[in-house]
Structures are given as C-alpha cells and as structure tokens.
C-alpha cells in the first residue's frame, strides 16, 4: 500500500470531525456570519459554564447574565476577568461536572513566569483547534499544510531524556511529511547538523520557535554556511522582535509569517501576506483591554483577554492570558474578514514597569543588544523597580564602552536611580519547553 493510500485511510478515520469543523469555518465568508457564529457559540459556552461549573454559576448569578436559560450578552463585559491565580484557587470549581463524558485529558501552561496552570481539555477542543490551524494555513497562507514537506524546529525536553522521538513520533513525522528538530539544545554541532538536514530535505515549510530560528540564522551567517530557502517560514511560540525577523529573512531569503498561540487556548492569530495578524475569533473570542479594562482603539496597546468557545470540559471565560498586543485595522487588504492585531508586543512580564505605573516595552531593551558581535546571548531581568540584572554570554571580551552605552540607555528610560548589575555567564538556560526569555520582569503587578 502506498503512502498516499495509507494517509487517505487514516484521514478518513481520524479527521472526519476536523474536516467537518474546518468546512464550517470556511463558510464564514462575511462579517455578519462571523458575528452570528461568535454570538451563537458564546451563548452556548456561557450557558454550559453556568449549568455545569460551580465557579461560573456563582459569578453569573451575581451579575444576572443568565435568566431562565437565556444569555444576556450585553452584560458580558461585566464578567470578572479570569486570572491564573483564580484558576489555581478555584481549579476544581472551573471543571465541568460532565467532564468524564468528553474524552478529556490534562494539560498545563508552560509556567515560564511562575507556577504552571493545570488545564482540562477534550476531543472537541482538539478538533476545533486543528480545524483552526488548517484554516490559517489553507485560507490565509494558501498552503496544504498536512501534505507539504516541512521541518519543525520545536522544543521537547522529553526527547532529550529519551534520546529519541520514539516510534510513535517517527510514524507521525512520516505521516505528516515532517522532520522534527529539537531546539531545546542548540549547541554549534546541533545547528550545523540541522542546517545539513534542512539543505538535504528541502522543505516547503519551516516552522519553529522565533528564538531558535533566529539562533540558527545567526550561526549560519557567522559561519558562512549555505542555507536552503523554503517557500514559507512560520515563527511561533515566542515574541518575534523586528530585528529577529529581519535576521531570519535575510539568511533564509524568505518572508517570515508570525503565528500567535498559547498552551492554554492554542491558536490565537496568524499573519497574512500583508503583515496583519488575523485573530481567530471563531475559535478564541478575543478582547483587547487597557489597564482600566476598557476596550482599546486602533493602534493602541492592550491586554489580550480570551474566551475559548469550544472547551466545555474546563471553560476559560474572559481569561487574562498575560500577553500584550496592538489593535490593528478592521479591514485588511488580503480580503480576510477576521479582525487583526497590528503586532503582538509580548507577555506582560516581558515589559518592565516603573514605580509610577509606566510600562516600558521589553523590545526597548532587546534592541540595545542586537548587532553587537561580542554578545552571543543575553537576558534582562527586572528584579525590582530600581534593580535590573543583565546576564550575557560573550564571545571574547565585551568592550567597556558597549556596556556603558547599554547601561546609560537603560537608565535613560528607567531612571538614573536604577541600579544595573552585569553578570557574565557561560550559558543562559531555556525554559522547560526550550524557549529563551529575553526580558522578564519579576515586579508584581496588582
């Protein structure tokens, strides 16, 4: 039996529901239909949460959003935001009492900013998530993602512990025309090996962590190595800073498309050919709020608030995911009806905060370190309002004038009283899922 026949057989078994949901999404071709779809499914998840989750039952009764099994969406913005602290405190009360009927399973957030959040998801959630994923590649990028040759540069500590991806992983790679490259460890010999694999396999698509693609492109440029240019590059899982994008595009000679998602709710937004990030509102209904919980206007930055429409096992309603974004234009030249973000500016903890409440973008600090040949890796940590620690891995010796220049520019924005501590280290560890955190604030925001 040929590979194509095997794939068709498996697809007919395991992708029936995904295909059905995908076809529903493709049919949403007008804004009125999108609004109707969101409203219908928002009411369904709210009603389910009220009837099956003790936490929401109590909260919804307090604001009166549900009366006689009817949902009053005009009161939606009065639902208190769901935070990670609330999820930890009321975990069991957020789980639906019919969870055992839903092919549910446990998951968790990455925990890069503290204690991970435990989640319950299910088969319906997976089906809609996969349908959204296929929608992005098929309807926005115009790619038959399941069938094109691809290289996935992703992090997995489990594979390092095991020493391989295992038999199931090998089959999935074969079935999906994929080669998985573990970015948890990127030593020079690993990067050289990965570049050789990419050059020999000649993938149509390369998808990976923003930081890992950046590291690979830097290594290739410094060592004058040949790099195959795929048709499409998709950056995911980390904030794609402007300088990182430019470096990756220069080396791979192809535009980078930014994809935004999270462990808690998966797909959130994907970039189109015109540079806009289209938010997948039919899967994750998203709000962008300022510090006073009011909706932001076009061009303004706000906190991303998410309501997943299809996880009935553990509904996340008005969940403050911890990310910041800038609201984009309503109409995109690409023709897709989904609303847009102008850009994702990173996690709230990527940004620093002054004592007067002023928020300083994390990208201000990352820009100070780019294109300094002696600096291989860096991490900037705000330990207190007036205390910043900089960890750097250097190649050779960093000129004193460079350190002084960076210190002065940080003090310029954070205040002259801010103390800057430099630590020269041999390595900067990644998170458990293989990501680098370039900037991190440990200052608690009330």
Question: Can you give a write-up of this model?
Answer:
- The chain is of the alpha/beta class and 446 residues long.
- It folds into 2 domains: 343 residues, ANL, N-terminal domain (Rossmann fold); 90 residues, ANL, C-terminal domain (GMP Synthetase, Chain A, domain 3), CATH 3.30.300.
- 35% of the residues lie in helices and 25% in strands.
- It has an 11-stranded mixed sheet with strand order 6-5-7-8-9-10-11-15-14-13-12, with helices on both faces.
- Helix 2 packs across helix 7, helix 3 crosses helix 4 and helix 11 packs across helix 12.
- The longest helix is centred in the first third of the chain and has 22 residues.
- It is globular, with a radius of gyration of 23 Å.
List keywords for this structure.
globular; 25% strand; alpha/beta; 35% helix; 11-stranded mixed sheet; 21 strands; 446 residues; 4-stranded mixed sheet; Rossmann fold; 2 domains; GMP Synthetase, Chain A, domain 3
Question: How would you summarize what this structure contains?
Answer:
With 446 residues, the chain is α/β, with parallel strands linked by helices.
